[in-house]
Amino acid sequence: MVGVETPTGTETAAARWTALMDARRVPEEILAHAPASPYRQDPERFRPAADPPDTPSRRAALALLDEVPDAADRTVLDVGCGAGAASLALAGEIAHVVGVDPASDMLAAFVGACLDRGVPYQAVLGRWPDTAADAGTAALVLCHHVGYDTADLAGFAAGLTAAAHTGVVLELHAEHPQAWLDPLWGRFHGLVRPDPPTADDALAVLTELGIDPQVERWTADPRPAEDPEVRAARVTRRLCLPPERVPDVVEALAGDPLTGPPRERVTVTWRP
Prior knowledge:
two-stranded parallel sheet; 272 residues; alpha/beta
């Protein structure tokens, strides 16, 4: 089996994060034969709930908004907004939301969700922090499940801090959300995946930046049951396999104790 060594001996937490993320890139020789992008996500899976769950991240966001005395100033910047699940869980409590996302279909879903709820919005297409100037600043900055998408977490987090007037709420999986697929990379590609970055690695980067965050660890509710073939089709694409391998992935998912991305979450809150 082929693999990439886990980085060791890096001098800083930021450098270690970058090395860990770089080590987990899908090898170019596999990407070159992928029939579809393994990184594409279906916006339907990320639409905001009509009745948002009462999570620690939502409670932390509401607590920060409560510190803004004028309701007209309760603005939100949602970095990596997807379809708006994080920011629109605050609908009714916010005056305006700016959503930033690099995927146009996700951003379209965000716009639709804002219109459905009557929330004034701005949509910014692009990656953070490249889009920081276009996105502007806000009372509250949210960033849910995007940290593991950047190799430069230090620059990413510094941009979040600079954009916030009152505070930042960052939500992460306890470890890289794709780490549960590592046995399948070995099964189908003979690829040994290196150790994944974790929320503790992310917290070390924040500490290095001089941030002293509040941290709450919790367990998310399980997702609703999903048709095995639909789930397997998504995993097949993620593994850079052709559609005809879906039956093999169905078998692998049924035969191994793989239940999907871990439910352990970490809410990280800090002030600028």
